[in-house]
Design a protein that fits this description.
- The protein is α+β, with helices and mostly antiparallel strands.
- It folds into two domains: 88 residues, Aminopeptidase; 151 residues, Aminopeptidase (3-Layer(aba) Sandwich).
- 31% of the residues lie in helices and 32% in strands.
- The longest helix is centred in the last third of the chain and has 14 residues.
- The mean pLDDT is 95.
């Protein structure tokens, strides 16, 4: 895949009602220029797969898209095989699978890690959220501390992505704690269909709720948040703010999952594209 293929990737996103923008595809090509592939038929792109290498800890596989008219013809299997070949030297590969894709990944040696619920809140919903004042807007001086904490919780360095989120949507970047002692933080990403809230990392649910409340008070948009199914109390709090579960994913891995991070501090993931 090259930059001139991005419009074709966006066409496939729209056909599948996925949320990605041009900037998301550009991030894949920036992070791993040789790690994205397209499938072509008669000179037209009919499928994609993208990969990210998170240092030497693990890699991420995503953007498995096939033109609706070419599905069930083996293209998806070929794309997955190509993505795995690109990452053949990696000790661990991780991904977020839809229920439909999970069985295909299992056939290729992937194991379940934990489930994730996608929750959606429509524009015009009463926020039912109040700000405690503990969260403050993230600034440049907070970033190094946020990046360091994120390495511990996510399991690898992804400061390029977090930096891009901060630059694209600074109004949704919030932090709790001091630069040298970060207790929680959140980011956001604009999209074609909705605004994705996440990642949200926090020491506890109270801090996570403060961060999410600030995001909900920022603007009236359609929001999506991808929540690991870890805490029933957290799910209940989010539901009380007007979010409803739309679909599920399963975080999966293949190989030695030596760096799973600390998911107990993870209240919303960045998204199935990036982890």
């Amino acid at each position: 895949m090259k930059h001139q293929d991005i419009p074709a990737g966006l066409r496939l996103c729209r056909a599948s009602r996925w949320n990605q923008l041009e900037s998301d595809w550009a991030a894949f090509l920036e992070l791993n220029p040789a790690g994205c592939r397209v499938a072509e038929k008669d000179g037209q792109v009919i499928g994609t797969v993208a990969t990210i290498r998170y240092q030497d800890r693990f890699s991420w596989l995503a953007m498995m898209l096939v033109d609706p008219q070419e599905r069930r013809t083996g293209i998806g299997t070929q794309l997955l095989s190509e993505g795995l070949a690109v990452l053949a030297d990696q000790r661990c590969i991780r991904l977020d699978a839809t229920p439909a894709g999970r069985e295909l990944y299992r056939e290729h040696g992937f194991l379940d890690e934990y489930s994730i619920g996608r929750m959606t809140r429509s524009r015009g919903t009463d926020t039912n959220a109040t700000a405690s004042g503990r969260a403050r807007r993230m600034s440049e001086k907070d970033l190094n501390g946020v990046f360091e904490r994120d390495r511990e919780i996510f399991g690898a360095d992804r400061q390029y992505l977090l930096r891009s989120l901060f630059d694209r949507s600074p109004e949704y970047a919030w932090v709790v704690g001091e630069p040298e002692a970060v207790r929680g933080y959140c980011f956001s990403r604009p999209g074609f269909l909705y605004r994705q809230l996440g990642p949200i990392m926090a020491d506890d649910e109270n801090i996570a709720s403060d961060l999410l409340s600030q995001c909900l008070l920022e603007a009236d948009e359609t929001f999506v948040i991808d929540i690991p199914h870890a805490s029933l109390d957290w799910l209940a709090w989010v539901s009380a703010r007007g979010f409803r579960e739309e679909r599920t994913f399963v975080r999966m891995y293949r190989g030695e999952n030596t760096y799973p991070g600390n998911p107990e501090y993870l209240f919303a993931v960045l998204g199935p594209e990036f982890g």
